[in-house]
Amino acid sequence: MMISPLQDHLKNILVSVLEKEIGKNSVKKLEDRLFEKYGKLISEVIEDWSIIDDILVEQYAGGATKITSKYIANISKMSPANRKHVKKVIKNPRTVKKIMNVLGDNDSAKVIAYLRLNTNTIQKIAKKVGLPNTSGYRKIEEMIDMGMIVENGYDVSRKTHRKIKKYTSPFKSIFIDIEKTVPVINFVPKKDIILKIA
Questions:
Q1: Residue 138 to residues 73, 89, 96, 127, 133: CA-CA distances in angstroms?
Q2: Which of 24, 90, 97, 98 lies closest to 65 in space, CA to CA?
Q3: How do residues 126-136 score in pLDDT, each as one tens digit?
Q4: Which of 39, 60, 71, 122 is the most exposed place for a label (fewest CB within 10 A)?
């Protein structure tokens, strides 16, 4: 499996946080348990926080939340693009985890970044951001189901004269933040887009 620069950077941040919180020897034990249970390295699962969270909870119970909070604090240096707009907050832990998984996935993050500034059909979105056909379409459909991508107009097919739905991101900006040691999602919605986060 090819590790992207983003995955490698996120892995380094997590390992640094873990070493400070639990020590190098415990990090090695955690990596061993991750490989034993899932057959993967930290860099291979950095985009699927549910796996990392599972191992942290299993190994460190109550300490897992503190580790997660410190990790997020280290990667959430972004701020809203335009502070004149009203910032919204998502606090539901299950929804926050889902969004973190989407934002942590390199392909999904590319789609969100592209759609913050554009509106397009699924086929054209996949092509513009360079997603493979099958997995790309599946990821886009999952983001539509979650409300991370929303319908916004349509194109008319030249061949069939049928309407083809177009999609955009409902976010002007979106970032992960920490409120009282709990991860939350802060975002600024686009003005004319209805947000329906699942």
A1: 30, 27, 21, 14, 9
A2: 97
A3: 999 998 878 88
A4: 39
